[in-house]
Every structure is written in structure tokens, then in C-alpha cells.
Amino acid sequence: MNDKTARRILTIDQGNSSAKVVVWKGGNPVMSKRMETLVIEELLPLLEEGEIDGCAYCSVCHTDAKFLETLRRLVGGHLIVLTPSVELPVKINYGSRSTLGNDRVAAALGAFALLPGESALVVDAGTAVTIDVVDKDGNFMGGNIAPGMHLRFKSLRYETQQLPLVEEFGELPTFGTDTRSAIRCGVVGGMVSEIADAYQRANIIYGCTRIVLAGSDSTVLEPLLKERGLPVLTDPNLVGRGLVEIYEYNTFDGVRC
């Protein structure tokens, strides 16, 4: 298929706790699904109808070789698996590409696709929260990794004698008035301050003009960041958007270069 705008690309972002599957057409998401366990049987309704022209996959955990072999066959060989050896349209300024998470690379490219010509702070708030910088040319400049929101809640419960496990969010005052609200304020408010500080520094050093937010906890963080007057753009499919960019860069007319 020569017309890129008509291609239907399947992206699979395998995270630590679930997989995000998105179908894209002309650079826009037309279907998305989150799967607790990534199994080929749940993808078959899409793949067997012949609606998918290619697939891009990345994972932060163990990759099942048998799954990838079957997936490659079902998409006619038009599969890009993001690894450190895959060609990218941008430069990675990181000490070791082999230890840089593929999801961080894809998220950075997704942010650049959304905001071409702008430097941005890319925040992916999932099991871990990653805070990375992509410059105005789309190059990955490095970033930070910290525990995600639920890991912070769990660490307070299981690494202390008295503190409860807090899972509900509710209102977030500046200071808590009981143990549960104090934990919420400390964990969630601390993450907001962490991101705000990183943005201020990235604005000074790299000229970042926007925070691009993704991940399962983005719905909690977005309004709190906006309350502080920070310029936030949320894209729940950010990693998939970057995978589409990588797929297109590594293919010509739907065939691997």
C-alpha cells in the first residue's frame, strides 16, 4: 500500500503491568485496548480480517519469542520490534542505548510528532514515572526515573509498621488532616512538585515549552499540574504514536528496508 495516510498500523506497548494495543490510520488512533496479558488470540479478530498493514512493538519486560514469531507471520512480515539496533530518525544522547527503555524512546518520538520544532518535557506516569527531555530537533536528551504513584503508596504500607495502604484518591488538600489524606498529599503532591521542578529546569536548560503527559496516572496528574499553571498536553497513546513514527521511518511502501 503506497498511501501512508491509508495504512492501518498496529502498535503494541508492553508495559510492566499491562499492554496497550492501538490501531492507527493516517497517524490517528482509531481503536485502543488495554490487555492485562498479551496473547495472540485476543489480537486475532484484528489480524485475521486483513485490516492491519504493519505492526510496531516495544516492551519493557521479557519478550516472548513465540508470540513475536506468530505476530510477524500474521502481519506478513511487516513487523518492527523496537530494540537498540533499530534505526531512529533522531539522535539518542544517553550513555548506553542498550539500557535505555524502548518505551522512553518511543514516547519521546511521540512527543516530537505532536509538537514538531518544540522542546518538551515528556512524562510517562505508569508503574514507574519517567521524566525525559526531547529537544526541538526531536533528539532524546536524557531524563529521570522514579517510582510511580502506586509503588509509592505500596512502599509506605509494606516498608512501615503503622501506615495503611492508600489506593483511593479523593480530594487533595495542601496538607492532610488524617493519615490517609496525609499520604495522598505526600505521594501525589510530591509527584506534581517533582514534575513541576523538572519542567522549570528543562525550560531553563533546553527551552522546553510544554509538558507532554502519558501513562495510567496521567488523569490524576493532569488537573493538578494545570492548577499550577503548567502547560500540559496529555496523550494516552503517546508511546504508540512514537512507534508509528519508528515504523514509518524503517519501512518503504510497507516493506522493511
List the helices and strands and how they pair.
Layout: E1 8-14, E2 19-25, E3 28-35, H1 40-47, E4 54-59, H2 65-74, E5 79-81, H3 102-114, E6 120-125, E7 128-134, E8 140-147, H4 149-158, H5 179-206, E9 210-214, H6 218-227, E10 232-234, H7 238-249, E11 251-252, E12 255-256
Parallel strand pairs: 1-4, 4-5, 6-9, 9-10
Antiparallel strand pairs: 1-2, 2-3, 6-7, 7-8, 11-12
Helix pairs in contact: 3-7, 4-5, 5-6
How would you summarize this macromolecular structure in one to three sentences?
The chain is about 35% helix and about 25% strand. With about 260 residues, it is of the alpha/beta class. Strand 6 (about 120-125) and strand 7 form a beta hairpin.
Overall shape: it is: globular
Quickly give the structural class: alpha/beta
What distance lies between the first and last C-alpha atoms, to the nearest angstrom?
15 Å
Largest sheet: 5 strands, mixed
How many helices? The count is 7
Rounded mean pLDDT score: 90
Gyration radius, rounded: 19 Å
The largest beta-sheet arranges its strands as 3-2-1-4-5
Q: Please mark out the parts with pLDDT under 50 across 5 or more consecutive residues, or reply none.
A: 253-257
Strands, total number: 12
Portion in helices: 25-40%
